[in-house]
Amino acid sequence: MYHQVLQPVSMRICLVSAILLLVLLGSLHSAGVAQGPAEMIRVAIVKSAPSVTLSGEGLLALSDKGTPLVLNPPVAVKAGKDVLVIDGIGYRRVTFSASSAVYVNGKPYRGVAELLPAEKGILVVNELALDDYLVGLINCEISSAWPIEAVKAQAVIARTYALYRKEIRKASVYHLESSVIDQVYDGCEIEDSRAQRAVSDTAGEVLAFDNRIIQAFYHSNCGGRTEAAENVWGAAIPYLKGVDCQYCLAGQASSWEQRLSLHEIEDRLRVAGRKIGTLLDVKAGPRNHRGRLKSVNVVTSRGEHQISGDQFRKAVGYGVIKSTNFTVRVANGEAFFSGAGNGHGVGLCQWGGKQRALDGFNYAEILSYYYPGTELKKLSDIR
Ligand SMILES: [Zn+2]
After folding, report:
1. Dist. CA 125 → ligand 1 center (Å)
2. Closest C-alpha among 161, 174, 88 to residue 127
3. How far is residue 368's CA from residue 298's CA, in Å, rounded to a whole number?
């Protein structure tokens, strides 16, 4: 069923089945995977939107008072002042669900879509079974066509990452962002049977250190050596010390180039809150022994500023400056960046993991290599 492309269907809301379906939600898709109630996760899928459109087969809507709403899909929800506005009526919260997937702005999602008024528009939180989330996520992060052991490593590490975030954000409206800030997640449209298999074959498995769920950072391509957490975020973590990884060099080109005008970099630094003058030059600062820049020197009309490598990437754009392992040269008002690797470099190197799987290692071996000292555990054994 996961090969099936889900198509939006507009149907009148069926009130009769509303309560029954909501009771079933959350256990349906993960039935057979876990015993007891399914582990749920809350992911922010839309933020600060002036309006959101909802549709789906058998679409159901409940107000914050639990009252079913009679609406004709597609339902347009607009942001009001501290309320959601539907057909001219204001609500504090509306929860949507559908028989197979609820479509949010045309994209299908498992579970429910909860709409809330937020400071700058509408916030949409997708609450769904954790394993359904993982199946949808796999093809956003890697490709399920990769060797199955690499896909299983991704499933375990994404589950571990999500549960860690859930624990520390348990009092928040949602646990995870759906972007590279946490894990890239774009709904269930790209679920497939191999992603499903990787999730069910590793059901309930997480990586632990001292019997606690680890902070399972991971990245695309380390460019030859993974990075210690302290070199990126300043805090030392025993299982994130960095390891040699030549494996990623065999696959996808790990080098990248980028050209940006000084004016553009200046704008981005300013938007990120840097109080700088006119940007005159960008220079590589000192490097750590893994070749990554500890800092970047920014020369402006008001003097020279040192910005940490990670903060520079964050300001200019993680997708633009793909790693902190780069050289830079400035000529004629333009900066030419030339770098290696993709991502912060901490934890699992996805492309390295792919090559390790091709070399015959299983997912447990791949994970213990990138997170030394950790153990693969059943969640039920450490809670
Ligand atoms: Zn690597």
Report:
1. 33
2. 174
3. 39
